[in-house]
Each structure stands twice: as C-alpha cells, then as structure tokens.
Amino acid sequence: xxxxxxxxxxxxxxxxxxxxxxxxxxxxxxxxxxxxxxxxxxxxxxxxxxxxxxxxxxxxxxxxxxxxxxxxxxxxxxxxxxxxxxxxxxxxxxxxxxxxxxxxxxxxxxxxxxxxxxxxxxxxxxxxxxxxxxxxxxxxxxxxxxxxxxxxxxxxxxxxxxxxxxxxxxxxxxxxxxxxxxxxxxxxxxxxxxxxxxxxxxxxxxxxxxxxxxxxxxxxxxxxxxxxxxxxxxxxxxxxxxxxxxxxxxxxxxxxxxxxxxxxxxxxxxxxxxxxxxxxxxxxxxxxxxxxxxxxxxxxxxxxxxxxxxxxxxxxxxxxxxxxxxxxxxxxxxxxxxxxxxxxxxxxxxxxxxxxxxxxxxxxxxxxxxxxxxxxxxxxxxxxxxxxxxxxxxxxxxxxxxxxxxxxx
Length: 409
Ligand SMILES: [Zn+2]
What we know:
Number of strands: 16
Radius of gyration: 23 Å
Order of helices and strands: HEHHEEEEEHEEEEHEHEEEHHHHEHHEHH
Number of helices: 14
Largest sheet: 5 strands, mixed
Distance between the termini: 30 Å
Helix content: 40-55%
Strand order of the largest sheet: 6-5-4-7-11
Shape: globular
Bound molecules: zinc ion
C-alpha cells in the first residue's frame, strides 16, 4: 500500500536530516575534519558521508578540499569544513548597566559587535527596542532574513520554552514575555530564544572557553548576583522548566544575611560582590572600582584586604564542596568577579575542598578561572542561537533563495 511507502519515505527523510545535523554538529564542535574522521565520529558509512557533505556543500554550509598528507599510508581524505559566513546568528545581551548585540558566524567568529554602556530605562519594551537598534548596527549590510537564529542573555530567571523572564531582580522585572517583545522589536523571521546570562556563559565556556571538551562542569559566575550553570554528561542541567542552576540561592548559612530573593543566608550573601566589599570595609555599591582598590591593597600586603579575600575564598570553597559532592564534576570554572580574585582565593578554595569533599570526587576535580571574561554571556547567546541549525540543517537549505512571504506559505 502506498500509505506504508509514504511512511517509510518520511522515516528515511527524518534519518537523513538527523544525519546532516550530526555532521554539522561535529564540524561545529571540532573544526575541520576529514571524511574518515566524520565516518569514525558519526558512525555513518563512507558513502553516506560523501552524499551528505555534498548536500551541505550545495547548500553553502561546508566546503571540501584535499587534506594535507599526514604521512600515513592509504588514500588522502577530503577535509570538510564549515563556511564561516555560511550561516550567521544574532546574539543579544541585556545586562544591568549595558546592552550588546553581535553577529556571529558558524566558526564562532564575530562579524559585528556593538555594546552600549548605561541604559536610560529598565522598561522591558524600551530595552527590547534598544536591542533592535544595536542589532541593526551589528548586522551592517546583512539583512535580518539571513539570520538563522537569535538568542538573548538576561540577568534573570527564564522559562526557556517561551522566553518568559519570570524574575529579574536587578531590572525589577516579573513575568516579562521578553522573547516575544524582542522578536517584535526586531521584526524577526525566526524565534527568539531567551536564557539566563550565567547559563549562557557556561555554554560559551563549554564550547569555546575554559571547559572546552569537558562533559561534567560546574560554572559559577560572580557579580552583585551569583549565577551558575551545571553540565552533566555533556548536557546542561536546567530542571523541569529551565529554572535550575540558581547556585547563588543555595542556602549555606542558616543565620546569615537577607538575600534579594527573600530568603536568608543564600551563597550570594557570602560570596557576591557586595559581601566581598563589605568584608573589606569598602562602600557598598562601589562596584568593580572598589574591588580593584581592595585587590591593590591586598597586593601591597594590607592585612584587612587579605583577610577579607581569604574569608571569601572559604565561603566559595564551602559552596563548591557541596556542589562537587553532589555532582562529581571534573572541572569547576569560576567567572566574573571570581575570575578577577581567583589568584587570591584559589589556595583557600582548595583547602576547603580538601577538608569537605569526599576523597574520590575531590581527586577528580580541578578549579580554574574562566577564559572568556565579560564576553561569555553574549558568546553563549550565539551558541544557543545556533541550536536550531545544528538540530536540523536541512530546514535552512535554500533559505536565501526564497522570499520570506513565500517561505511562510
Ligand atoms: Zn537568595
């Protein structure tokens, strides 16, 4: 019956598209690979790889060239690489005191990067309009139509499914449908993904930074708030609705200080920037300038600054000990202000881990500073924005040859 044949046809089409996705994902994660390497990594046959890379090349996503001889016997294999500008995404960031937009290519290279310090208003619609203006500048000569994915980093708790920012205390937002608002402001032809900035920083450090190639990672990023991201078995741990990974609100001190979230003694109240400054006798609200002053004092051997940093290291170690016992990561990556103070707290963190973590997971874990610095959330937004392409590259074939009106028909 033709019904059965249709079903088989559909199934093989699904398999073909998944295989295309597997190839693009390998190239995206590892850079150029020979056809033999693709065979080994995807488990596909040599002839399947030849046919599928041919289709990707026809779509302008990959190029193929002769691999340089490696001195090994056998036929030379074709080297397959992604075309850097073959597909681009729009990465956006809302931070407390700035907004940013970048156009990023398949090789992770940034084509356009615009940041505006200080913002006039925290009104969500105005912030979305501000992003649209920055996006237009970042896009330059490219049109919004060429963008295969869009993602926004926000300093808040986000429901991934629909981009609802359920809470962003530092912006004063509650239940803001920021994905929709941004899509409207941009006139976007693709959905806009929204995610927590720290989760995205993890993604970036994982793909292109300190945790590249690691599958089990805890990333903790410090500013006024403390955020984080957890990766287990190569996948982000986000919880049932994407609210997970709020490391800053892990209770560590039952009789501690009040937290912005309404609870008491959250980790953030001991290791957040305000806590570090208070311990060092600095003005609250002094920000990174005050922290720099404290670090200069510490470098000059001032006992008060050194003691404040040592105590911060202890509280960092206490929280991390719980996480390492719970998750057994190979790597802990410390970003934001923790990256800045890392050389002055590393020893104390290690001492706390030695004392508090079970021997087996302790032996496996390393604590390192982040690599991407303040760019990590925007970089991570680019990674998230590429997901739809990596999932199903065939969806984007022939995209720029079809007018947008026809495409939606
Ligand atoms: Zn809290």
